[in-house]
């Protein structure tokens, strides 16, 4: 079929298999152009199909020659209907990994469930024996609790007061004010239940109980802090409470891994265009200004550059550098004073008229469509392409 982008609200409901393959290939090429990492040999990535998780899987495979198992929740293709981009990304990743002689298998299902944890544990046991790194990179708006069956929904709301600020509809370029009403107590509980650390802990407990964690095992989950500007809706909002919980969970997990000298870390990553971040109000405007400033200073990074730096310059050093809260920071460039001062100044000036000048709205849009395999040079989007792509190592 001929596949063109089709958007609904903030998301794109079609994706292009060859474009997704191109996106993956670009990331593989980047990693191959860098010096190798002496790190993990067997890696499990939970949330492995897009964004930071995909970059983590690519870095593990092509940067350290690791065997990888990826867990994700993606929509397979049907005749006349495209798969979700994470499906095509994974198909392309596995094809390249297998060509390079690397073990790569995948599990598509709800990572929050006991069944998927069990299936993953059995696969590790059968094929790999033990693993030495688990990357936890889930971003989900809902979680069905495995014990109670209750379905929790996360929210992106401020706590205490209504928050009013500018935002951009990046599809139209319109900058306007939005007001987000303060959350309820229940919203906080729900968001912490979905995006906090409970499920990460359950994963590691399960794998530990089954004897599947190697000595010196490491696990990393991803967090975000960001500027003052977005604090009410991000770090001091409902999602921030979930991130606080995730960060606290790292210490609990480490406590339970003493006998194998295992350690859990949270890495604070940079703001980037992903399917998840596009859905957060205010953040797209911040990102489009941030990109402009970081590109001007030659400091811009995408997911793959971020994760390579995490592995190469943080995770596998003898002494892992952390901040006063014990977190790994790869948001150091985003948070630099000169960058933040410039973004704060541009923020005040941002209007529908000025944004295309002072912000990187084009860059934002381009990256957004790239997530779904669109806007890549060298791909003929008028041409018929086969949507029925399968993932070679899908279990
Ligand atoms: P993403 O939407 O690109 O990736 C989410 C992944 O989770 C996908 O692989 C998806 O298939 C998987 N997933 C979602 N629900 C699932 C389920 N129920 N079962 C199995 N898999 C499921 O998101 P991302 O932006 O890469 O976010 C990953 C992590 O990084 C999140 O914790 C996010 O908060 C954090 N982070 C993101 C940013 C950013 O700006 N995007 C910055 C810092 C930290
Ligand atoms: Na991810």
From TrEMBL:
<feature type="binding site">
    <location>
        <begin position="272"/>
        <end position="274"/>
    </location>
    <ligand>
        <name>NAD(+)</name>
    </ligand>
</feature>
<feature type="domain" description="Trans-2-enoyl-CoA reductase catalytic">
    <location>
        <begin position="81"/>
        <end position="316"/>
    </location>
</feature>
<feature type="binding site">
    <location>
        <begin position="138"/>
        <end position="139"/>
    </location>
    <ligand>
        <name>NAD(+)</name>
    </ligand>
</feature>
<feature type="site" description="Plays an important role in discriminating NADH against NADPH">
    <location>
        <position position="74"/>
    </location>
</feature>
<dbReference type="InterPro" id="IPR024910">
    <property type="entry name" value="Enoyl-CoA_Rdtase_cat_dom"/>
</dbReference>
<keyword id="KW-0443">Lipid metabolism</keyword>
<dbReference type="Pfam" id="PF12241">
    <property type="entry name" value="Enoyl_reductase"/>
</dbReference>
<keyword id="KW-0444">Lipid biosynthesis</keyword>
<feature type="active site" description="Proton donor">
    <location>
        <position position="234"/>
    </location>
</feature>
<keyword id="KW-0275">Fatty acid biosynthesis</keyword>
<dbReference type="InterPro" id="IPR024906">
    <property type="entry name" value="Eno_Rdtase_FAD-bd_dom"/>
</dbReference>
<keyword id="KW-0560">Oxidoreductase</keyword>
<feature type="binding site">
    <location>
        <begin position="110"/>
        <end position="111"/>
    </location>
    <ligand>
        <name>NAD(+)</name>
    </ligand>
</feature>
<dbReference type="Pfam" id="PF07055">
    <property type="entry name" value="Eno-Rase_FAD_bd"/>
</dbReference>
<comment type="similarity">
    <text>Belongs to the TER reductase family.</text>
</comment>
<feature type="binding site">
    <location>
        <position position="224"/>
    </location>
    <ligand>
        <name>substrate</name>
    </ligand>
</feature>
<comment type="pathway">
    <text>Lipid metabolism; fatty acid biosynthesis.</text>
</comment>
<dbReference type="InterPro" id="IPR010758">
    <property type="entry name" value="Trans-2-enoyl-CoA_reductase"/>
</dbReference>
<keyword id="KW-0520">NAD</keyword>
<feature type="domain" description="Enoyl reductase FAD binding">
    <location>
        <begin position="322"/>
        <end position="384"/>
    </location>
</feature>
<comment type="subunit">
    <text>Monomer.</text>
</comment>
<protein>
    <recommendedName>
        <fullName>Enoyl-[acyl-carrier-protein] reductase [NADH]</fullName>
        <ecNumber>1.3.1.9</ecNumber>
    </recommendedName>
</protein>
<feature type="domain" description="Trans-2-enoyl-CoA reductase-like NAD(P)H binding">
    <location>
        <begin position="2"/>
        <end position="78"/>
    </location>
</feature>
<dbReference type="Pfam" id="PF12242">
    <property type="entry name" value="Eno-Rase_NADH_b"/>
</dbReference>
<comment type="function">
    <text>Involved in the final reduction of the elongation cycle of fatty acid synthesis (FAS II). Catalyzes the reduction of a carbon-carbon double bond in an enoyl moiety that is covalently linked to an acyl carrier protein (ACP).</text>
</comment>
<feature type="binding site">
    <location>
        <begin position="73"/>
        <end position="74"/>
    </location>
    <ligand>
        <name>NAD(+)</name>
    </ligand>
</feature>
<dbReference type="InterPro" id="IPR050048">
    <property type="entry name" value="FabV-like_NADH_b"/>
</dbReference>
<feature type="binding site">
    <location>
        <position position="243"/>
    </location>
    <ligand>
        <name>NAD(+)</name>
    </ligand>
</feature>
<feature type="binding site">
    <location>
        <begin position="47"/>
        <end position="52"/>
    </location>
    <ligand>
        <name>NAD(+)</name>
    </ligand>
</feature>
<keyword id="KW-0276">Fatty acid metabolism</keyword>
């Amino acid at each position: 079929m001929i596949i063109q982008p089709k958007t609904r609200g903030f998301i794109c409901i079609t994706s292009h298999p060859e474009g997704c393959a191109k996106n993956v290939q670009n990331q593989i090429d980047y990693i191959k152009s860098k010096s190798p990492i002496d790190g993990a040999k067997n890696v499990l990535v939970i949330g492995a199909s897009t964004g930071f998780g995909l970059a983590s899987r690519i870095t593990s495979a092509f940067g350290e020659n690791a065997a990888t198992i990826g867990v994700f929740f993606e929509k397979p293709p049907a005749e006349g209907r495209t798969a979700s981009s994470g499906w095509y990304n994974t198909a392309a990743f596995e094809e390249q990994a297998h060509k390079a002689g690397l073990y790569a298998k995948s599990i598509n299902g709800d990572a929050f469930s006991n069944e998927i944890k069990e299936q993953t544990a059995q696969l590790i046991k059968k094929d790999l024996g033990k693993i030495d790194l688990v990357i936890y990179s889930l971003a989900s708006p809902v979680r069905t609790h495995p014990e109670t069956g209750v379905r929790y929904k996360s929210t992106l709301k401020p706590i205490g007061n209504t928050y009013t600020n500018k935002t951009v509809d990046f599809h139209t370029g319109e900058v306007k004010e939005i007001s987000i009403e303060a959350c309820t107590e229940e919203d906080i509980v729900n968001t912490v239940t979905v995006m906090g650390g409970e499920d990460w802990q359950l994963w590691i407990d399960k794998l530990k109980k089954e004897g599947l964690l190697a000595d010196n095992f490491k696990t990393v989950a991803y967090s975000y802090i960001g500027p003052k500007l977005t604090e009410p809706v991000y770090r001091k909002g409902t999602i921030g409470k979930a991130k606080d919980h995730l960060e606290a969970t790292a210490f609990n997990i480490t406590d339970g891994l003493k006998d194998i000298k295992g350690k859990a870390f949270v890495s604070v990553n940079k703001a980037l265009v992903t399917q998840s971040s596009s859905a957060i109000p205010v953040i797209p405007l911040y990102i489009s200004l941030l990109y402009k400033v970081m590109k001007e200073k030659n400091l811009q990074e995408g997911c793959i550059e971020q994760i390579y730096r995490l592995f190469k310059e943080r995770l596998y050093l003898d002494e892992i550098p952390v901040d006063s809260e014990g977190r790994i920071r790869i948001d150091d460039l985003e948070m630099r004073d000169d960058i933040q001062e410039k973004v704060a100044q541009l923020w005040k000036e941002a209007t529908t008229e000025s944004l295309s000048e002072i912000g990187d709205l084009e860059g934002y849009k381009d990256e957004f469509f790239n997530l779904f395999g669109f806007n890549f040079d060298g791909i003929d989007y008028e041409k018929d392409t086969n949507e029925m792509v399968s993932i070679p190592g899908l279990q």
